Amino acid sequence: MQFSLKGNVQRFVSTAIFTVIAAAGLLATNQALANALPGDPALADTPRETQVHKIRGFLPDLRFSLVGPGEAPVTAATYKGKVVMMFFGYASCPDICPTTMAQLSQVMHGLGDQADNVRILFISVDPHRDTSEKLQAYVQAFDTHAIGLTGSEKQIAEVARRYRVAYQIEKPRADNPDAYEVAHSRGIYIFDADGKASILASDSESVEALTTAVRSLLPVTQQ
């Protein structure tokens, strides 16, 4: 996993996501690769390690109580029967969030008609600025199957804690309460149609690998 962070928040977030992968028994460290310099011939024939990990049984099922489009209450039951790609971020994010949303949009495009059986859930970690209207306009610009979810500070904290997502909102400027930065951990959580946590992927993973992962969770008749 990779992170878009500042200062000591990086250590906190790194520890949080490390715990997820380590708990699943999926973290593999290759010291030789870690110590190799860029351009090292030893890397030439080394296959890229996948950042798509099966996590069934290691993370909890899809469950939340948040606010969706039109300020309507939304729970995981709303998306029962759909494969869900869930990502945490915020609408004012300058780089990582739009890049990941564009990536997930490409996955949906690659699924063709199967995309009707998949939803992108973008959960905001910035409930102060991300109203349901603003958030939905943001995600819909990427894909019509995307839903923006926000809520109270407590609601956001509960779902973030459930999936071990770390985030921190910096203190706003005195002259502008809406001027602040947000740091958050990164990762794409993929749930099957029954809401079972199935795959945790890096947002740096290829569109092809993510598309294959999502297809593997669709019923055979839909593939």
The radius of gyration over CA amounts to 18 Å
The helix count comes to: 6
Q: Helix share of residues?
A: 25-40%
> In one word, what is the shape?
globular
Instruction: Describe the strand arrangement of the main beta sheet, using strand numbers.
Output: 2-11-10-5-6-7
The helix/strand class is alpha+beta
E-strand count: 11
Which residues sit in consecutive blocks of at least 5 with pLDDT less than 50?
A: 1-47
Distance between the termini: 29 Å
Report the mean per-residue pLDDT as an integer.
Answer: 82
> How is the main sheet built?
6 strands, mixed
SSE pattern, N- to C-terminal: EHHEEEEHEHEHEEEEH
Query: What percentage of the residues does DSSP assign to strands (E)?
Result: 15-25%
Report on the structure:
With 223 residues, the protein is α+β, with helices and mostly antiparallel strands. It has 6 helices and 11 strands. Strands 2-11-10-5-6-7 form a 6-stranded mixed β-sheet.
Key terms:
223 residues; alpha+beta; 6-stranded mixed sheet; 3-stranded antiparallel sheet; 11 strands
List the helices and strands and how they pair.
Elements: E1 3-4, H1 9-23, H2 31-35, E2 52-54, E3 65-67, E4 73-75, E5 83-89, H3 96-111, E6 118-124, H4 132-140, E7 146-149, H5 153-162, E8 167-169, E9 182-185, E10 188-191, E11 197-201, H6 207-215
Helix pairs in contact: 3-6
Write a compact overview of the structure shown.
The protein is an alpha+beta fold and about 220 residues long. It has helices at about 10-25, 30-35, 95-110, 130-140, 155-160, 205-215, and strands at about 5, 50-55, 65, 75, 85-90, 120-125, 145-150, 165-170, 180-185, 190, 195-200.
